[in-house]
Amino acid sequence: MRTLVSVFVVMMTGLATAGASDDWPIYHGDSGLRGVSTVSLSESLGVRWRCRLSAPVASPPVVCGERIFVAVEKGGLLAVDLEGKRVWSVSLGKPANPATESQESFSTPPLCLAGMVFVGTDQGVLYAFDAGSGAVRWKQKIGEDLLGSPNWMTAKDGAATNVLVMSRNDGVLKCLALGDGRLIWASESVSRCDTPPSVGPGVAVFGACDSAIHILSLATGKSIGAIMLGDRGPMAGGTAVDGHQAFIGTRDGSVVCADSSGSRIVWSSRCASNEVFTTPAVTSNRVVVGASDGRVYCLDRKTGNTMWSAKVEGTPSSPLVAGDKVVVSSEGTLFLLSLATGKPIWSNKAADSLTSPAITGAGVIVGTDDGFLILFGVRG
C-alpha cells in the first residue's frame, strides 16, 4: 500500500499577470495532438526565469490558465505559476515494503482539464489531482504500466466529458468518467502500445507495435478499422489528427497520412534514414516531424513530398509550430527554425537534455534533466 504525501503547498494568491497564458493543456497541445500554437514568437528568445524543481523533469510540461504542471522523477508533480514560483507539489509515497515493492513514479505527461490534473504511473495507475491544491480527487488502476499522455473526448457542445488513457503493455484503451474515474468502456487488446491516443471526429486513433494504425469509436471503444503498415514497422510516436486525416511516423523513417473515415492510406513518404518516433506537427499545408537521424523534416501535407530538412544537434523531440516558426528541442538545445525554409533562426543550449516544449503566450517552456523548469520569452 502506498500513500500520497503532500510536500509543499502555497495558497493560490497573487496570480501571475506577466504575459498572456494561452492554454497548452496536453502534450502536443490539443486532443488531436496537432502540435500547433497561435502564439507568434519573436526571432530571439531570452530566459525569463528558471525554477528549480525537486528532481529531473520526467515529461513535457502542460499549461492551464496561469499554472504550469510538470512531473518529475521519483514520483513528484508540481504546479508552478507564470512567474516561475512553485505553487504546490505532491509526491508519491515510498512503498510500504521496499524490499519487495519498487518506487512508483509518474511516467506520462500530465493532462490539465476541468480543474484537474491527470497523470499516469509506471505501475499502471491514473491519478486525478485537484489543479488548485494538488489533492487527489480519484485514482484508477489501468494496466501494468502507462506511458502515453492521457487525453479527453468532448461532447457536441464542446465540453469535456471523459478521459482516455492507454494501457501500455496490452494496448487496451480505456474511457473513464471525468469526475470520478468510473470505467465507461475498455477496448479490446491489440498489442503493446507506447503511444497516446489522439482524438478526431467521433474516433480515437493510435499506432501500435503491431505495425497498425487503430481507429476506435469514441462512443463504444469498438474497432472501426485497422490500417496495416507492414514493413514500415511499429510506431512509437503519437498520431496527429486533424479532421479525418491522421499523421504518424514509423520505424523505417516513413511518415504516413491516413484517412480515419475510410481506414485507408492517403500517402506514405519515406523521408528519413532512421526511425520517426516523434509526434508530427500538422498545419493546413505542412507536416513537421523529427527523426532519429538528427534531422527535422517538413512535408507537404497534400502529397507527402519533402519541402525541406534541417540538421539539429542530437535527436530531436516532437516539434511544434508557432506561427511561422518551428519550435523543437534536441538533446539539451532549444531551436527555432523557419517554417517556410527550415533555416535556423535561434538556439539556446540550456542543459544536457530537454523535454519537448510547451508554448503559451508567455513564451516557450521546457523541463531539464538537471531539475529545472525554464521559460524562454521575448528577449528584453
How is the biggest beta sheet arranged? 5 strands, antiparallel
Number of strands: 34
Which residues sit in consecutive blocks of at least 5 with pLDDT less than 50? 5-21
Percentage of residues in strands: over 45%
Name the overall outline: globular
How far is it from the N-terminal to the C-terminal residue, by CA? 50 Å
Gyration radius from CA atoms, angstroms: 19 Å
Task: Output the strand order for the largest sheet.
Answer: 1-7-6-5-4
> Helical proportion?
under 10%
Category by helix and strand content:
mainly beta
Mean pLDDT level: 91
Counted by DSSP, the helix tally is 0
Notes on the structure:
This protein has strands at residues 4-9, 36-37, 45-52, 62-64, 67-72, 76-81, 86-92, 111-113, 116-120, 125-130, 136-141, 151-154, 160-167, 172-177, 183-186, 198-200, 203-207, 212-217, 223-228, 240-242, 245-249, 254-259, 264-270, 281-282, 286-290, 295-300, 306-311, 320-322, 325-330, 333-338, 344-349, 358-360, 363-367, 372-378. The strands form 8 sheets. The protein has a 5-stranded antiparallel sheet, with no helix packed on it. It has a 5-stranded mixed sheet with strand order 2-28-29-30-31, with no helix packed on it. It contains no helices and 34 strands. With 380 residues, the protein is mainly β.
Compact summary:
With 380 residues, this protein is mainly β. It has strands at residues 4-9, 36-37, 45-52, 62-64, 67-72, 76-81, 86-92, 111-113, 116-120, 125-130, 136-141, 151-154, 160-167, 172-177, 183-186, 198-200, 203-207, 212-217, 223-228, 240-242, 245-249, 254-259, 264-270, 281-282, 286-290, 295-300, 306-311, 320-322, 325-330, 333-338, 344-349, 358-360, 363-367, 372-378.
